[in-house]
Amino acid sequence: MGIRKLGYVGLNVTDVDAWTDLFERTLGIGVTTVKSGTDEVALAELDVFKYRVALHPSTVDSPREIGWIVDSPPELDRLTRRLTDAGFTVEDGSADEKQLRGATQLRWFTDPVGYRVELAIGEAKVRTGVARPAGAHPGATGLGHLVQAGPKVAELRELYESVLEFKLTDYRAPGLFFFRCNATHHSIALAHAETPSVHHLEIEHGSIDDVGRAYDQARRNGVPISISLGRHMNDKAISFYVQNPSGFHLEIGCGGIEVGEDWVPHDFGVSDVWGHHHADANPFAFPKSA
C-alpha cells in the first residue's frame, strides 16, 4: 500500500495559548513555535519526529490539513494518477509547506467535504528521544487516528477505500466505518453528520499507567472530560476523551490491537466493552436514545 500512516494534522485555532497549556501542563507534550512564511506556528511534539499536530493562529477553529505519509516517490506518483483518474485535482505543496512538515515531496487535494488532504514523502527526525516538559512522564508516543464526520460518507468511503486503497476493518450500522493503512486497527474512521467536522484525534500513550496519569492530571487541571475512561469494543483500546479549546475531542488512549491480512470486516455491534460515558449526547449512538 502506498500510504504508510497518518503523519500529522494541521488546525486553525483561535486560542493557541489554551492549546499549548493543554498539551504541556496536562498531557506533558512539548510545544515549539516556528516561523513558516509569515505565520507563527505552534508544533506539538508527540515523538522523535518534528511534529504531529500544528496549531495555526486563526479567527476560526477548523481543520487545516490532514497529512498522510507515503512509502516512496513512485507510490506518490501512482496515488496521484489514481486521484486524477477519479476526478481530484492534485497540487504540489509550496517550499514553505514542505519545510514545515519536514517532507521532501508534498502534494495535496481537496476531499469531498472540502478538507485539504496531503500526501507527503519523508519525515524530519529532529530528536533522539521523546521531548517532554520538566517532570512529565513518558506519556504520549505518537498520533494514532482521527475520526472525520460529515454529510458525504459514501463519497469519503470511495476516496479512502477505492482510490487511496485503505482497507475496511469494521463498522457499526448504520453509518460508522473504520479503515486502516497499516497493521493498526484503524487510522481513520468516517461517520455521518450534518456538517463536516473532525470528531476527535487520538494521541497514543505507551501504557495504561500513562493514560491514567493523564486522566488524573486532566481532572486536577479542570480540563473538561467529555468521554470517561473506558475500553472500545472494536480495537480494544483503553482511553478517555477531553474537550480541546477548539471544541472537538482529543482521545488519550493505549492498547489498540493490530490486525492481519486475513482480518474479516464485520459489524462490531456495541461501541464499548465498558465505560466511555459521554458528558453530552453521543452523536454515534445507535439508536439515538442509546
Automatic annotation (TrEMBL):
Its cofactor is Fe(2+). SUPFAM superfamilies: Glyoxalase/Bleomycin resistance protein/Dihydroxybiphenyl dioxygenase. It comes from Kibdelosporangium persicum. It comes from the Bacteria. This is Glyoxalase/bleomycin resistance protein/dioxygenase. Signal peptide: none annotated. PANTHER family: LYASE, PUTATIVE-RELATED-RELATED, SLL5075 PROTEIN. Keywords: Aromatic hydrocarbons catabolism, Dioxygenase, Iron, Metal-binding, Oxidoreductase. InterPro entries: Fosfomycin_Res_Enzymes (IPR051332), Glyas_Bleomycin-R_OHBP_Dase (IPR029068), Glyas_Fos-R_dOase_dom (IPR004360), VOC_core (IPR037523), Xdiol_ring_cleave_dOase_1/2 (IPR000486). Belongs to the extradiol ring-cleavage dioxygenase family. Residues 5-122, 142-255 form the VOC domain.
